[in-house]
Each structure stands twice: as structure tokens, then as C-alpha cells.
Design brief:
By secondary structure, the chain is an alpha+beta fold. It contains two helices and 14 strands, in the order H-E-E-E-E-E-E-E-E-E-E-E-E-E-E-H. Strands 1, 2, 3, 4, 5, 6, 7, 8, 9, 10, 11, 12, 13 and 14 form a 14-stranded mixed β-sheet that branches. The N and C termini lie far apart (about 135 Å). About 20% of the residues are buried.
């Protein structure tokens, strides 16, 4: 009896760290004013550890039998992530993931994140910086779903995945933000077809969230920065041009004023002798 109690105590001590990590997942897409944008939250021990907001759309090629009953034709199915999708997630110090499934598991989107240290050079000096990135995206889809895959040939489940992905690279402690559309290509198990994933209006943070349900300082994508520059550049050029015009008019005004104060020489040369 004593040995059983001792075994139980030892087993409880070994299991307790795992049980302490109570996980909650929440789909808050209904709070988004944008009907195409989804909001997902993963929490552990009552604290937010992963947040993701984005709009996503998929373009999936599939085969259809031609009218001659022999040849195959490739069609495209376009679908978006619906509201009310089921989510799962996992948080860690260097790895995190988000799983989103809908239509009773006919579709599952899995997004994987990793955090790593990178050596970056500046002014001839090497500096080690911690970054996080999206390291893998995987989509499981079922061409048996006749809502999107009409008359699919040999219907069934397929898996499409990225290879050697390094996307949304962001400094540790910050969230990634990008309004512009990001495009990913996944290679499918269905005869190596290319599945295209379009993501936009993105804000994601899988690590180091300091406040519950609040993203950390955003790290904006280069596309957004470029678009912002393109928006502000005409304004800056207009201000510079306006300033040049004002300076030109001011100089001309002073020139006229100085000219008016100078003595005027008579045009009739016979009058010079009287001067």
C-alpha cells in the first residue's frame, strides 16, 4: 500500500506541470466589422499566448472529366474561411501553431510559427537578433464537397503544404501587421497541383504577448510602408512646389520694390546735359 501511495505521489508530481497548462481557444470573428476577416485567440493559464487576425481565401485546382468521357479538365474552386470555424492551438517558447477546421473537418488550415535567433550584420559588426516567422502552412481539403468542387473526378481528401517557408519575419516581441495581400503557394498531394492562399488585412502574434487580448507594437510589412510612402510623396512634392512658388513671388516682389526706388534715366538723350 505504501509503495502504491509513493508511486501515485511520484506520478502526480510528474504529470502536474502538464496539467497546469490549461488551454482555451476562442473564435472572435463575430467581433470583426469586416465580414471576411477572422479573429482567433489561443490562451494558456488564463493568458493570451497567440492572436491572429486575417482575411483568407483559397484557390484550389481540381480535375473534372471532359465531355468526351476520356480527358481531364482542370477547374478552380474558390473558397473563403467561414465564420464559426473550429480552432485549436498550441503555444511554446520557440514553436506555436494554429489549426482551423470547418465543414465537419472537410477542411483544415494549419499554420506553424517558429522563433529563432539570427545573426545580422551592421557597420561591419555582427549582432544576434531574435525573430519569429511563419514556417509552414498546410491545407487539408476534400473534393467530395460538392458545394465547391462540382463534378470532381475521383473525389477525396488531399493535403497541400508549403516547402521551406520563411514568411512574415518579425522581430521578437512585436506583432506582424500587413493590410496588403500576401500570396502563398502550396503543393498538393493531388498530382502536385498548386493551391494558392491569399491572405490580407493581417495582424498576427504567436509569441511574447504582454497584455491579454492586446497585440504588441506592430511591425508593418514592406508593402504597406511602400504604399504609405507613395501616398505621402505627392503631398510632400506639392508642399515643396508651393514653397518654391512662394519664394519666387517674394523675390520678384522685392525686385520690383527695389527697381521702383532707383532713379529713372530719361529716354531722350538731349536731356542728359541737364542732369
Amino acid at each position: 500500500m505504501d509503495s502504491a501511495v509513493a508511486f501515485c505521489v511520484l506520478g502526480c508530481l510528474l504529470v502536474s506541470p502538464v496539467l497546469l497548462a490549461e488551454q482555451e481557444v476562442e473564435n472572435l470573428s463575430g467581433l470583426s466589422p469586416n465580414p471576411d476577416k477572422d479573429i482567433f485567440v489561443v490562451r494558456e493559464n488564463g493568458t493570451t499566448c497567440l492572436m491572429a487576425e486575417f482575411a483568407v481565401r483559397f484557390l484550389i485546382p481540381y480535375d473534372v472529366l471532359a465531355l468526351n468521357g476520356i480527358d481531364l479538365i482542370t477547374e478552380q474552386a474558390s473558397l473563403a474561411l467561414p465564420r464559426g470555424a473550429r480552432i485549436e492551438g498550441a503555444c511554446g517558447s520557440t514553436e506555436a501553431e494554429l489549426h482551423i477546421s470547418w465543414v465537419n473537418g472537410a477542411y483544415t488550415l494549419r499554420i506553424y510559427f517558429t522563433k529563432e535567433k539570427r545573426t545580422m550584420g551592421s557597420d561591419g559588426k555582427a549582432k544576434e537578433t531574435e525573430m519569429w516567422k511563419m514556417s509552414k502552412v498546410q491545407l487539408v481539403y476534400d473534393t467530395s464537397d460538392t458545394t465547391h468542387f462540382i463534378n470532381a473526378y475521383n473525389p477525396g481528401k488531399h493535403t497541400a503544404s508549403t516547402h521551406h517557408l520563411s514568411a512574415l519575419v518579425t522581430p521578437a516581441g512585436q506583432s506582424y501587421m500587413c493590410a496588403a495581400q500576401q500570396t502563398l503557394t502550396l503543393i498538393s498531394s493531388d498530382h502536385q497541383k498548386g493551391v494558392t492562399v491569399y491572405m490580407s488585412d493581417i495582424q498576427i502574434q504567436p509569441f511574447d504577448i504582454k497584455s491579454d487580448f492586446v497585440f504588441s507594437e506592430p511591425y508593418k510589412c514592406i508593402t504597406d510602408q511602400r504604399e504609405r510612402l507613395e501616398e505621402t510623396l505627392p503631398l510632400v512634392l506639392g508642399l515643396i512646389l508651393g514653397l518654391i512658388i512662394v519664394i519666387t513671388i517674394t523675390i520678384y516682389h522685392f525686385h520690383l520694390k527695389l527697381t521702383a526706388q532707383q532713379p529713372q534715366l530719361p529716354r531722350d538723350r538731349s536731356l542728359y546735359k541737364n542732369m
